[in-house]
Design a protein that fits this description.
Elements lengths: L3 E6 L19 E2 L2 E2 H11 L4 E6 L5 H5 L4 H9 L7 H9 L1 E6 L10 H5 L1 H4 L4 E5 L2 E4 L5 H13 L3 E7 L1 H4 L4 E5 L9 E6 L10 E9 L2 H8 L10 H11 L2 E5 L5 E4 L3 H13 L5 H10 L1
Parallel strand pairs: 1-4, 1-6, 4-5, 8-12
Antiparallel strand pairs: 2-3, 6-11, 7-13, 8-11, 9-10
Helix pairs in contact: 9-10
């Protein structure tokens, strides 16, 4: 049974400078909630009760956000506004959050948060989530639940979420290269990084959600750095696909994946989430139609 999740939130977020000089990129809001809160609510919706957030060494603001503030709560209570904190209180009542500072001796890159969480996850399979990716779905945790069901059915070494982004966008992402296997649907051969559309093996891009087994740790520990000096999780996944079973799970129907890692796509995410808010959608739609 999967009951742990690891969220990578140790990056610098340089594309959001200068604002992230003051606070982490994961606290940049989507409407009234920071990006990372959506991820935690998503994990809880899939039944995850133990969540580790990997933060930069010395970073305290994310942990402070998820901590109680007696003075604020007193003020809101006195002014009949305490419901503004309901979503935060719900998180703290449903899951235990652990904040792990990424050691400074680890290189930059998406593989280092995993190594930072090795003791937290132990030998159990777990969810791994990129902190600047957002899942849009009718019910938080719906897509992760599908991933968990697939994992329990096939018991692979890893599952990678993917989305069909079309030929126009695939050159921005890694594209999935598949192999035929009658026993394992959507078995991955490799994720090939940022190829031109006419060379990409498919239009399925990696979607920032993974189910990972402990096999990944030994691969990451032995893996050399990439040419840019970073430790990439995708390289470890490709190595695992050569010796084990790596599957993909597609976002489909009313599920969607958004990256919020740059200002343009962050702005688009705000609009998409705003159009789903019953209190905002009509006014926002009218405004957008006037542009």
């Amino acid at each position: 049974m999967i009951n742990k999740a690891v969220i990578a939130a140790a990056g610098r977020g340089t594309r959001f400078l200068p604002v992230v000089k003051a606070y982490p990129k994961e606290l940049v809001p989507i409407l009234s909630k920071p990006n990372i809160q959506y991820l935690i609510e998503e994990a809880i919706g899939a039944g995850i009760t133990e969540i580790a957030v990997i933060i930069r060494n010395g970073e305290t603001k994310i942990q402070n956000y998820f901590s109680s503030d007696e003075n604020l709560e007193k003020y809101l209570s006195e002014n009949n506004k305490i419901e503004y904190l309901d979503s935060l209180k719900s998180i703290l009542s449903k899951a235990h959050l652990t904040f792990i500072q990424q050691p400074t001796n680890l290189p930059y890159g998406t593989g280092s948060p995993l190594l930072s969480a090795k003791e937290f996850v132990g030998s159990d399979p777990f969810i791994y989530m990129y902190g600047d990716d957002l899942t849009v779905e009718p019910v938080p945790g719906q897509f992760l639940t599908k991933m968990i069901n697939t994992f329990e059915k096939y018991q692979p070494d890893e599952i990678i979420a993917v989305k069909d982004v079309g030929k126009e966008e695939i050159s921005r992402y890694g594209s999935a290269q598949y192999q035929d296997d009658p026993n394992y649907p959507h078995r991955l051969l490799a994720m090939l990084e940022k190829l031109p559309a006419d060379q990409a093996p498919s239009t399925f891009a990696q979607g920032g959600r993974f189910i990972v087994t402990s096999k990944i740790f030994s691969i990451l520990e032995q893996q050399g750095l990439s040419r840019d000096g970073e430790l990439w999780f995708s390289d470890a996944s490709n190595s695992l696909a050569k010796t084990g079973i790596v599957l993909t799970q597609s976002f489909e129907g009313n599920e969607d994946w958004l990256t919020t890692g740059d200002p343009l796509r962050w702005l688009k995410a705000n609009i998409i989430i705003g159009l789903q808010d019953p209190n905002l959608k009509d006014s926002l739609k009218q405004y957008l139609l006037r542009l």
